[in-house]
Amino acid sequence: MTTLLPADPKLGYLAHKAEIDDAVQRVLESGRYILGEECSAFEHEFAAFVGVQHCIGVGNGTDALELALRALGIGHGDTVITTSNTAVATVAAIELAGATPLLVDVDDETLTISPPALEKALATTRAAAVIPVHLYGHPADMPQIMAIAERHQLRVIEDCAQAHGAAIDGRQVGTFGDAAAFSFYPTKNLAALGDGGAVVTHDEHLATRLRELRTYGWRERYISETAGMNTRLDEIQAAILRVRLRHLPHDNDRRREIAARYSHSLGRAPAAGDVHHVYHQYVIRISRRDELRERLKRQQIETAILYPQPIHLQPAYRGRIATAGELPVTERAARELLCLPMHPWLTDSDADRVTAAILQHG
Ligand SMILES: *Cc1c(COP(=O)(O)O)cnc(C)c1O
Q: What is the pLDDT of residue 270?
């Protein structure tokens, strides 16, 4: 019996091996390895896919968030609101930009930022920006968040690291805010075979700033206009991403099929109507979670917990980072959630093996 993994990047490579090998070979022979034709072609193709004007390829998703904050002029003395049940990257990027994170609670259904909690935090705190995280491939409630942001003059940076291709009413995540950050870490829905990331935006002025800040604040080569970063999407990863982007709609559809199969077998309702969920993770919540996890492991079904500890309770942040009061929904979810194996290369019978193992023990 093969072991089922929560994510399986090697299967992703093997699924398109010939195309990926060709793309890598092309770069190796081109003599250009940083910010060349592959990167700019990928930037155009990805912008067109998302439905934005501009895409700026960067080194990883964390850099993408930091760069977006810096390009929007957010830094020292500014408060940036986000959630505590996210990759540490989201909060780390806020601090790397010099700003101060404020963490608010999430919606109990979607585990994305709760609009009422956001509104409540803004009643007592002035903030410069909000970073909604489209967690697990499920879009945050962008119509409500944008309305709140407008009332409070907040900048909005979407964290799309888990949600390439997710949409609300046919409009993709990454098109709502001032800017959006993507990661192409090898387990993401759109995955490099190494590190990679991007910032997207509709705003031409902002795109220019993002491009300058990506390379030391250069406007003219070797001359820094402002103090910038060094964060670049390399040519090999860009060429691989161009291959993978062509398969992304199909790969996301396959994730949705597996999710529908899980939901059907487990008697759970599918995601609500106007939301296009791309299932970076398929998450169940159960009170005796660790017991179930052990039982599945004995049947060679590996699961993941994203995330086992909310950021405000982690050693690096505990007692130091601000939360908007208690975060009961976030803390309860961390104790109950379990991510089942989820990637486009699972077969129907793999999915049935997972649900049979769960149901067998009731
Ligand atoms: C993966 C991830 C990031 C960070 O991306 P890296 O490319 O690993 O730096 C940021 N936010 C979320 C929600 C993520 O899942």
A: 73
Which of 242, 267, 301 finishes a domain?
A: 242
Alpha carbon of 286 to ligand 1 centroid (Å): 26
pTM of the full structure: 0.98
Judge whether 244 and 188 are in contact, CB under 8 Å: no
234 in the same domain as 148 = yes
Question: Do 79 and 109 reside in the same domain of the chain?
Answer: yes
| Domain shared by 44 and 166, yes or no | yes
* pLDDT class of 337 with cuts at 50, 70, 90: very high
User: Who contacts 64 (Cβ-Cβ below 8 Å, separation ≥6)?
Assistant: 58, 181, 182, 183, 197, 198, 199, 231
Is there an atom of ligand 1 within 6 Å of 86 CB? yes
Q: Which of 242, 271, 302 is the last residue of a domain?
A: 242
Tokens of 340: 């089942």
283 within some domain: yes
Amino acid in the structure at residue 343: H
Amino acid in position 202: H
* Mutation test residue for ligand 1: of 185, 187, 189, the one with most atoms within 8 Å of CB: 185
Q: For 84-215, where are the E strands, in sequence order? A: 100-104, 129-130, 155-159, 167-168, 171-172, 179-183, 197-201
Report which residue type is found at 178: D
